[in-house]
Amino acid sequence: MVENLLARGATVYAAARDLATVQTKGAIAIQVDLTRPQSIVAAAEATGDVTLLINNAGSFTGTDLLTGSMDQIELEMNTHYYGTLAMARAFAPQLASNGGGAMLNVLSVLSWFAVAPDGAYCAAKSAEWALTNALRAQLSAQGTLVTALHVGYMDTDMSRTVTADKSDPAEIATRALNAVERGEREFVADDVSRHVQAALAGGVAQLYPA
């Protein structure tokens, strides 16, 4: 997404815990750790011209809700839910002052469907989906578009051990940013996400037939 936005001529702040990991030429490295709220406040104070906020931070601990570490469960929630919420609270006034702008929250097909061994991640992404819907309704008054991206596996470090089909993250980035540009409030990126979304109407029996 950083590379794509730079190619479109945007000024891009690339947030990371370790500034040395921001290696894309032209990106402005800015330190953010979603588990440290003060770093989020500092990032908002250090900018001023943000018109698009992309909440893309992720963690995947593979933690079972009943037997896994509570610390790991809290990490998932702190990253996906509380972290996204803190970013929204810090940057919403800046978006408003710059004409409204947009927020893109990178969610997951697992926002809609739970896999028991990875329950901590699924619960956190589901909470982030509910948060995204609430933010969309609330921020519309200031003219801010809130877009949810739902996608299955992408070929990134987080899914390096997955052998199933994976989407090209560069392609997903292009299509997601195009959706924001078109003013779409939801972008369902792949067939598995579309299938699960359609199954929501059928309730528990259709989502979990076993």
UniProtKB/TrEMBL annotation:
Q: Is NAD included in the keywords of this UniProt record? A: no
One Pfam family name is adh_short
| InterPro entries referenced in this protein's UniProt entry, alphabetically | NAD(P)-bd_dom_sf, SDR_fam
Keyword annotations from UniProtKB, A to Z = Oxidoreductase
Which family is it part of?
Answer: Belongs to the short-chain dehydrogenases/reductases (SDR) family.
Q: What is this protein called?
A: SDR family oxidoreductase
